[in-house]
Amino acid sequence: MMVRKKLLAGVLLLLATPGAWAQRAVDAAEFSVSGVKLGMEWEAAQRAASGFMQLPVSAIKPFELNNPITGRRQPMGFRIAASHGSLLVRFSAEPDLNGAIRVSAVEYEIPWSQENAERLRQAALEKYGSPSNAPESVNLQWCAHPNGNLGLGCADMGHQGQAEQAVLEAVGNKLSLQDRGAHIRMQRYLDSRRSTSPRF
Fold it and tell me: Fewer CB within a 10 Å sphere, N or C end of the chain?
């Protein structure tokens, strides 16, 4: 009887460890949050957000930032709120599109409570499937390139060739979809503009 108990305890411990989780590669760029997908243009993102949130486009509150490519100040994101949650959509200027902006991040948030956090977590699992590389005890993440270390989420800046990926993450009462490559592409563009040959 004692042996069987020890065996059962060992099996449960194995199942509880990160190594028992299989990595799942999935392209998060194919996902949408509140109807909005990465890479959308301004008008399309507004229509998708207002339709999903069941609010008129006039309920959208845009905000302006400086476009680092054109040098002009322009709308670079918007917020929209409903009784069931709020949505923040951010845009980034794309160097390959002469500074045209595209959706680079979507954040959905509901009021904080332990119950709401669990509801958001379960809804995310139901909609997007098993996470890429996260035990149930940590933040859930979905991506094409999971971290090589089980349980640590998605590959980040330290992983060459894998950092430029879309990542969906469920943390507490927030769900965020982000194009991590947007910042890298912009930095690469700015670095190329600063390129010079020293003369001394």
Answer: C
